[in-house]
Specification:
This protein is of the alpha/beta class. The chain is about 50% helix and about 15% strand. The protein folds into three domains: about 5-130, Orthogonal Bundle (N-utilizing Substance Protein B Homolog, Chain A), CATH 1.10.940; about 140-170, no CATH class; about 240-425, Rossmann fold, CATH 3.40.50.150.
């Protein structure tokens, strides 16, 4: 059996059955299985996740049993086979079918004939596969074409119009560049770029921020440069709220939803490791991740604390020069990195997000000194979680004024989708 496809199967099964994050699961299984072509594994696994709803639509045409009643292994193998046939020009059709049959013999015993039959029938009849007419149901058409759950399509059409919604849907299929943030405590962008190029990486300057590099190559997470703390992996969109906050050496900063710590450590670097950062999270294990990253990067000004950001710590009231609220959100801006978000179901947890976000923002604002700065940010594209939340906060808190508000999107900015609202507490 091909170890590359086997590894991709493990990743997809992990995401499907265990609700694992695709990026973490991919790194875990590639390290565990050591496939000879990890780029093939990533393309196949992430490709299936990006096109899952469309692939399931095709399966439903050729299989009478509803997807939800089929075995998870059967469905995963069929998705993998179809994706290779439709999207991977480097894979001959016969290889896609044969390797899928081999997978079925191992992971779905007795179903190899079924898998073989479905894939071969698709090859015979693929010219007849069509999407339902757009004019009959625009939401369903766009949902199938770009593989997003219908509620996401409806949300973006309602908020941004059909043309802009389709731009966002299409951009979610872009393969993001790998971006690293240079640790300015230990190096600078020009020096690190030169050293990385000497090691055989293709390296380009970031588009938005002076301490970012776009890099092409294998084993970015790990190795001597990473382990010694010369850089961290971070999308430029995730850096935008930190740049907006603009923390300075000697200041006191509160990060109320800090884990896993990318923005926290970025702030410490901008502060030249001088000052104090209080980093909150409700889970101790997630705080350990921040502590480990800080140690790797040579940072000692971060104090991690178990705390629910919906409540205010009395000992820090009026004590911070700057506060950042990177609140829990629907994550719709990060589908390039986490394609499983595309088929996240609308549920009670998502429905309650704006209420929770308002609570966190209200509680966190009490830490800001008069004359201090408050930044609210999310990694989503949803006015209900973004503009509506900050607008409501500013109406209720007249001692704060809005300094800056922006929404980054992949088609316009080349980053993940991030919303940032920078506010000043009046003297």
């Amino acid at each position: 059996m091909d170890i590359n496809r086997k590894t991709a199967f493990y990743i997809l099964r992990d995401v499907e059955k265990n609700k694992a994050y695709s990026n973490i699961s991919t790194n875990t299984h590639i390290a565990r299985q050591t496939p000879p072509a990890p780029s093939f594994v990533r393309e196949l696994a992430f490709g299936v996740l990006r096109r899952k709803i469309y692939l399931d639509y095709i399966i439903s045409i050729f299989v009478r049993t509803p997807i939800e009643k089929m075995g998870a292994e059967d469905v995963t193998i069929l998705r993998m086979g179809l994706y290779q046939i439709i999207y991977m020009n480097s894979v001959p059709d016969y290889a896609a079918v044969n390797e899928s049959v081999f997978l079925a013999r191992t992971f779905a015993r007795g179903r190899d004939g079924f898998v073989n039959g479905v894939l071969r029938q698709y090859l015979r009849d693929k010219e007849y596969v069509e999407l339902p007419p757009r004019e009959e149901d625009t939401v369903r058409y766009l949902s199938l074409r770009y593989s997003y759950d219908p509620w996401i399509v409806s949300l973006w059409i309602e908020e941004r119009g059909e043309a802009e919604a389709e731009r966002l849907l299409a951009a979610g299929d872009d393969v993001p560049p790998l971006t690293i943030r240079v640790n300015t405590l230990k190096s600078d962008r020009n020096n690190l770029r030169k050293r990385m190029m000497e090691r055989g990486f293709n390296v380009y300057e970031g588009r938005l921020f002076k301490n970012s590099l776009l890099i092409e190559g294998r084993d970015i997470i790990g190795g001597r440069f990473y382990d010694s703390g010369l850089y961290s992996v971070q999308d430029e969109g995730a850096l935008a709220p930190v740049i907006s906050l603009d923390p300075k050496p000697g200041e006191t900063v509160v990060d109320v939803c800090a884990a896993p710590g990318g923005k926290t450590t970025a702030m410490a670097e901008l502060m030249n490791n001088d000052g104090r950062i209080y980093a909150f999270d409700i889970y101790k294990r997630r705080l350990r991740i921040i502590d480990a990253q800080a140690k790797r990067l040579g940072i000692d000004i971060i104090r991690t604390m178990i705390w629910d950001a919906c409540n205010t710590r009395s000992d820090l009231i009026d004590g911070a020069d700057k506060v950042i609220c990177d609140v829990p959100c629907s994550g719709l801006g990060t589908v390039r990195h986490k394609p499983e978000i595309k088929y996240k179901k609308w549920d009670s947890e998502l429905k309650m997000l704006p209420s929770r976000q308002r609570d966190i923002l209200a509680a966190s604002s009490k830490y800001v000194k008069p004359g201090g700065v408050l930044v609210y940010c999310t990694c989503t594209i949803s006015r209900k979680e973004n503009e509506f939340v900050t607008r409501d906060f500013l109406k209720r808190n007249r001692d704060f004024i809005k300094l800056e508000q922006k929404q980054l999107t992949t088609p316009d900015d080349g980053t993940d989708g991030f919303y940032i609202c920078k506010m000043l507490r009046k003297e």
